[in-house]
């Protein structure tokens, strides 16, 4: 047997086998397109579509609100139809929506098109997570960490490509970047086509539910005078008792899971802190040089790429994930305090505290991503995993809608606002730890395998 190559060794470290590696490629390509579009969306709607600032705000707000329905709808369908063709269909819908933006400058049509695209984006996110959960088995947390690394690298590649293209500064460039976004979805669909359909406990349960038996021609009903069978006599196979049909669990009646999802919407606020809060605070409330802002975002990206996989150990088991909520609370507290402190002192002190805040919130991001992945899966019944993860996907969708309001409110309140935000996030960590504690029903004591082991 020959000595394994570095490529073979690397492949062996990626859970999920061939399908897991292919889905990483899908994630990487998808995020390249998202990086292209994310860096130019506002510019495209301003210069190519000719929309005003207010119209762009309405466009993004409406499409974001419609997109909230994407995760639960995608998860619900994934429990009833094969996952692979569903994911391919969603990718194709996203591609068509992106290309359709090139065909009109009418605000009403753009609202409809971006809403469809937003719905597809949010659905694709939960479907990709569900596929990874099914193929990675007990190594799902490590796979999630590798996947997030691929996402960040893809975003960086797409963003750098967009920055290079934007040096041209023409409307044609904006259109080509949008076409590149659509092509990334088409490529993702093609790569997904090469993946196998993962086993699904939910669909298996649906298939195994017995149908009511119909009497065959010639059968006669037993008469009242027929002798009752002896207790010791074997029961004929065709008259065996039919198991009682059970209703599949639904997350909408699971108060614990709904409460957990609501707490997740709060803990996902680190996303709005980085995209909105930190840049606005740095340029409006501190004496730090403005050139530091993009470097803070680069710092976030680099730290995630370097440390997300090692951080997978904090969610290796359900109980480990629950315990890791304490350091997550500490990271939120430190980040809020550092942002509050950055408003006072010389420019060098503001720069140092902003870097500290960016590092703390990045640590919180990585910790929460690991904890959230494990707990959202282990709290979901295997027979309704898609529906439950779809509901969990609402947490990020809701945060994207209300997060900017929470962060701008913290900015308006000044340093005390950031202290309050950090303390509130830390308190939510404690509340979630109490919520997901083992209540003797095995909720956090199950084996870390949900659907399949590969």
Question: What does it look like?
Answer:
The chain contains 18 helices and no strands. By secondary structure, it is mainly α. The longest helix is centred in the C-terminal third of the chain and has 32 residues. The radius of gyration is 25 Å and the shape is globular. The protein starts with 5 loop residues before the first helix and ends in a 19-residue tail after the last helix.
Count of beta strands: 0
Proportion of residues in helical segments: 55-70%
Give the mean pLDDT.
82
Q: Structural class from helices and strands?
A: mainly alpha
Strand content: under 5%
The biggest beta sheet is recorded as: none
What overall form do the CA principal axes indicate? globular
What oligomeric assembly is this protein in?
single chain
Distance between the termini: 23 Å
- Low-confidence parts: 211-245, 445-454
The ordered H/E elements are HHHHHHHHHHHHHHHHHH
What layout of secondary structure does this protein have?
Layout: H1 6-12, H2 17-38, H3 41-48, H4 53-67, H5 70-78, H6 83-100, H7 107-136, H8 140-165, H9 171-193, H10 201-208, H11 255-267, H12 270-285, H13 292-307, H14 318-323, H15 325-341, H16 347-378, H17 385-413, H18 415-435
Helix pairs in contact: 2-7, 2-8, 2-9, 3-9, 4-7, 4-17, 5-7, 5-17, 6-7, 6-9, 7-17, 8-13, 8-16, 11-17, 11-18, 12-13, 12-16, 12-17, 13-16, 15-16, 15-18, 17-18
Keywords for this structure?
single chain; about 450 residues; mainly alpha; 18 helices; about 70% helix; about 0% strand; disordered C terminus
């Amino acid at each position: 047997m020959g000595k394994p190559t570095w490529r073979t060794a690397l492949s062996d470290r990626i859970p999920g086998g061939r399908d897991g590696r292919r889905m990483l490629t899908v994630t990487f390509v998808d995020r390249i397109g998202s990086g292209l579009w994310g860096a130019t969306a506002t510019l495209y709607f301003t210069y190519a579509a000719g929309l005003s600032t207010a119209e762009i705000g309405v466009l993004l707000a409406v499409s974001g609100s419609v997109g909230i329905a994407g995760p639960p709808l995608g998860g619900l369908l994934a429990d009833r139809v094969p996952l692979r063709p569903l994911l391919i269909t969603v990718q194709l819908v996203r591609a068509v929506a992106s290309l359709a933006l090139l065909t009109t400058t009418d605000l009403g049509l753009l609202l409809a098109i971006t809403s469809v695209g937003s719905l597809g984006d949010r659905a694709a996110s939960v479907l990709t997570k569900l596929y990874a959960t099914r193929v990675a088995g007990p190594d799902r947390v490590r796979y999630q960490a590798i996947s997030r690394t691929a996402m960040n690298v893809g975003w960086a590649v797409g963003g750098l490509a967009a920055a290079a293209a934007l040096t041209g500064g023409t409307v044609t460039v904006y259109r080509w970047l949008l076409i590149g976004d659509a092509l990334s979805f088409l490529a993702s669909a093609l790569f997904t086509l090469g993946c196998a359909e993962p086993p699904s406990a939910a669909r298996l349960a649906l298939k195994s539910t017995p149908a009511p038996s119909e009497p065959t021609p010639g059968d006669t009903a037993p008469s009242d005078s027929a002798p009752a069978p002896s207790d010791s006599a074997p029961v004929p196979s065709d008259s065996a008792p039919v198991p009682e049909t059970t209703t599949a669990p639904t997350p909408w009646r699971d108060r614990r899971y709904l409460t957990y999802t609501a707490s997740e919407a709060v803990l996902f606020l680190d996303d709005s802190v980085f995209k909105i809060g930190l840049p606005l605070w740095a340029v409006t409330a501190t004496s730090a040089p403005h050139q530091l802002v993009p470097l803070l975002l680069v710092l976030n990206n680099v730290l995630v790429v370097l440390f997300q996989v090692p951080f997978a150990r904090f969610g290796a088991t359900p109980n480990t994930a629950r315990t890791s909520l304490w350091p997550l609370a500490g990271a939120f507290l430190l980040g809020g305090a550092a942002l509050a402190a950055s408003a006072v002192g010389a420019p060098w002190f503001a720069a140092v505290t902003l870097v500290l805040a960016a590092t703390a919130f990045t640590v919180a991001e990585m910790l929460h991503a690991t904890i959230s992945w494990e707990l959202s899966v282990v709290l979901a019944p295997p027979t309704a995993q898609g529906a439950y993860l779809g509901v969990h996907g609402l947490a990020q969708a809701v945060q994207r809608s209300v997060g900017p309001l929470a962060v701008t409110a913290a900015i308006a309140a000044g340093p005390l606002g950031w202290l309050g935000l950090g303390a509130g996030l830390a308190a939510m960590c404690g509340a979630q730890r109490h919520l997901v504690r083992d209540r003797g029903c095995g909720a956090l004591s199950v084996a870390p395998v949900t659907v399949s082991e590969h």
